[in-house]
């Protein structure tokens, strides 16, 4: 892995961020402007909110553009990608941050609203967004390129009452890691892929959820900082907090019945979503 600084990656960069109008997406946008990006595209379903942020962040050195797009629509993704290329050029950094969560028992999940929409926005959209820009990123060897995919600790360990969300994040991890390997093995490691797997983050998206044993609810600032630093450095995967790694290690060595007891009775992973309410 080539060591890089934020100047190597951010100076003069064009950045595309999905789910950019609020929460961690807005934090990434502010940091991109602060660290020297020349253009930032704020992709969000709430175009008005994205426009407010764009007006706040835009400077003479950095053009910030609000882009209203529904990531549940492949056609809208393709159209917005073309608009972004036309207005700003091909991005050198893509941050797939947007996501939704629908909690509850799988038997109660609505096939369209809960299952299809969650998989579409959380898993399919990052693939489609990245596919739009990847050829241009590969072709441009004049600078370092970065793809940051926001997955979740839920994609590393099964958890009841969030089966569809977990499935979408497992998909992101598998795709993101496979893409990273394809780029490395094809000699295109100037495009580095980072997968970020945090536990619960206090953005409001997981309101009511409780962190497992020794796993505090992360703040948006601390979570985004870990993801950002990992992306700039080109680290393949960032797992936060440390208990996510511990859980993966236990799950890897314990028989399933033993792990179920440890996860449920010791770490309280399986009850973490019992009081989930979500953003209201």
UniProtKB/TrEMBL annotation:
Entries under InterPro entries matching the protein: NAD(P)-bd_dom_sf, Sc_DH/Rdtase_CS, SDR_fam
Annotated signal sequence range: none
Keyword terms, alphabetized: Oxidoreductase
MF (Gene Ontology): oxidoreductase activity, acting on the CH-OH group of donors, NAD or NADP as acceptor
Classification via PROSITE patterns: ADH_SHORT (PS00061)
Family affiliation: Belongs to the short-chain dehydrogenases/reductases (SDR) family.
Name of the protein in question: SDR family NAD(P)-dependent oxidoreductase
Organism from which the protein derives: Tessaracoccus antarcticus
